[in-house]
Amino acid sequence: MELIFCPIDDQRVKRENFDCGVGELNEYLQKYARQNHKKGIAKTVVAIPETGNGEVVGYYSIAVGEIKREFLPENYRRGLPRYPVPAMLVVKLAVDKTMQGRGIGEELLLESLRKSLRLSSEVGIFAVKVDAKNESAKTFYLKYGFIPLENDPLSLFIPIASIAKMLE
Ligand SMILES: CC(C)(COP(=O)(O)OP(=O)(O)OC[C@H]1O[C@@H](n2cnc3c(N)ncnc32)[C@H](O)[C@@H]1OP(=O)(O)O)[C@@H](O)C(=O)NCCC(=O)NCCS
To answer: Among candidates 53, 61, 50, which has minimal Cα distance to 17?
Structure first.
């Protein structure tokens, strides 16, 4: 299925029926994603099928943030300043239950990583960080080279340098 990636405020987007199986992520898309997008809190990109009525099949939201130096594994801390390092945060990522397992989560994640890499040529970005919702989501991120942070087993990061290598 060919997908279009577009901002959540695109006129075509219908999000009422989205259900990824995690209430909080459904509610975010339906109630908060659009206003947060407008206010500059987090930008949301949705995937809609090229042919269809605009129903969202998946989405991700990103914002800027930081990672405390002491939360990085020891071997990543070396040579870094003593203050927090800048990071892109993938704050939400979800795929509708009916469409899971077809590669859409991967497409969304890679799209968010490509965007982070692009931005990193103009803005200081050391890594991309995600907070996995559960162990299963964590396994998904580990597959793409994310590394656990030391403060929370469900918090993960991937250095921009690794993203560049992966996408080259
Ligand atoms: C996690 C999620 C985004 C994955 O999306 P998806 O479209 O189902 O994943 P894909 O089909 O793109 O899978 C890509 C790869 O990850 C693997 N994968 C997908 N979900 C996985 C999971 N929960 N655990 C382990 N591996 C997983 C797939 O097997 C596939 O690997 P393969 O190519 O080697 O077969 C989706 O299942 C989802 O929305 N879950 C509910 C919400 C959630 O937990 N979101 C994460 C936010 S923290």
So the answer is: 53
Show the tokens assigned to 48: 């809609």
Mutate to test the pocket of ligand 1, among 140, 146, 152 (most ligand atoms within 8 A of CB): 140
pLDDT tens column, 105-163 = 999 999 999 999 999 999 999 999 999 999 999 999 999 999 999 999 999 999 999 99
Number of domains composing the chain: 1
Domain of 115 in residue numbering reads as 3-167
Residue owning the nearest CA to atom 18 of ligand 1: 140
The pLDDT tens digits for 12-33 are: 999 999 999 999 999 999 999 9
Residue 25's domain is classified under what CATH number?
Answer: 3.40.630.30
Ligand 1 site, CB within 6 A: 20-22, 25, 93-95, 100-106, 132-133, 136-137, 139-140, 143
Query: With a threshold of 0.85, does the pTM exceed it?
Result: yes
